[in-house]
Amino acid sequence: MDDFLKYFENKDFIQWVLNPTDDLNKYWKDYLECHPKETEEINKSRLVVLALKSKKNLQSDNREVILFSEIIREINTRNKVSLVRRFIFKSLKYAAVLLLFLSLTVSYYYYQKVNKLDSIAKQLVVGGDQNNSQLILANGNKVLIDEKKSEIVYRNNSEIIINKNDTVNYTSNTTKVAQYNQLIVPFGKKSSITLPDGTVVHLNAGSRLVYPSSFTGTKREVYLYGEGFFDVYHNKKRPFIVKTTTQEIEVLGTKFNVSAYPSDSAVETVLAEGSIKLNANEFSFFKNDYILKPNQRAYYNIGNKEMSISRVDANKYVSWYLGYLNLETSEFRNLIKRVERYYNIKIKLQNINVASKTITGKLLLKDNVEDVLAVLVTATSMELTKINESTYVLK
What range(s) does the Protein FecR C-terminal domain occupy (predicted)? Predict the structure, then answer.
């Protein structure tokens, strides 16, 4: 066991396994030729490091491996002590290895579970209808909704009411295996849905919500692609969890907004009421949890995987579901992007100097898109040119 442990103290060994070079390859080849009895132990050590690398994009200076090496090294520096202490330290070294393997096992299970949940959401994607919202039930039934705004309510565990008029019958899931429905809202539309537990979700244009036909087990889990405002029904015994491709948000009962469009470079979560916990929805030994308080925003940069927390006016970020946008919440280019999604149009911004500026006030999201664009023209002193029914130029 000692021979097995000693390689984790050697940063050159870690470097060789993770990022081999010609010099390192030559050194360890010569080393193995001179120490053939260590071949088995070296191979075991390489497997452990490679297992770590396969679960997470480790580098040679990664803190998991470095920390493990430091633990072993610290123990070895104290092995010139009494017999009892030597026994304790050796036990600690064995425990460190056991802990490493246990961590690998648990983390691998977590990694597989996350991938499985994500794969379920991906598998449910069907050919998109660019003109209608779609409610797709677990049994395969599809309901097309052509209204610009739609309201969907689950009632009495057997009925779904659409826009207060149409009724869809469904069978509540009584098995332990979750059966998933999904609501797809194309660009140019928006929808609200009251889930079987009473939670209300407002979906912005270009969004998709995957959710079970009934909530079973100890958690209530849904999957969001795009933007949604959540008013979660309180149930302290069954936390409500919103998953995105990069993170998950855990709540008991609260109101918050999540913007997680696949095309965006960041995920924004803004808390209006209550408290929520965020963590990375990916394999990680040292996973940070972030607790948000009301009027705080969590900004997760997908590129560098960094999270920043700031204080904001939550009303400015959640107003879209009430039918207006606060113009001072983001740069003008981001405002244009939101208008494009809401109306399913394309706006070409020729004056790049305006792109990074902000505008104060409110923008009402009227039914007529050209009325909305006229407000932007007035506010920015720009000119608007209509290319066709879905393309405009601001210059």
Answer: 325-392
- Domain extents in the chain: 2-120, 131-316, 324-394
* pTM (two decimals): 0.68
Q: Which long-range contacts (CB under 8 A, 24 or more apart) does 14-20 make?
A: 14/49, 14/60, 14/65, 14/69, 15/60, 17/45, 17/46, 17/49, 17/50, 17/53, 18/49, 18/53, 18/58, 18/59, 18/60, 18/65, 19/59, 19/60
What's the pLDDT tens digit per position in 275-316?
Answer: 999 987 654 444 578 899 999 999 998 888 888 999 999 988
pLDDT tens sequence across 1-12:
445 556 766 767
User: Tokens 């889990």 map to which residue?
Assistant: 221
Pairing of strands 190-194, 149-155: parallel
Please give the CATH topology (third level) of the domain spanning 131-316.
Jelly Rolls (2.60.120)
Measure the CA–CA gap between 356 and 336, rounded to whole angstroms. 11
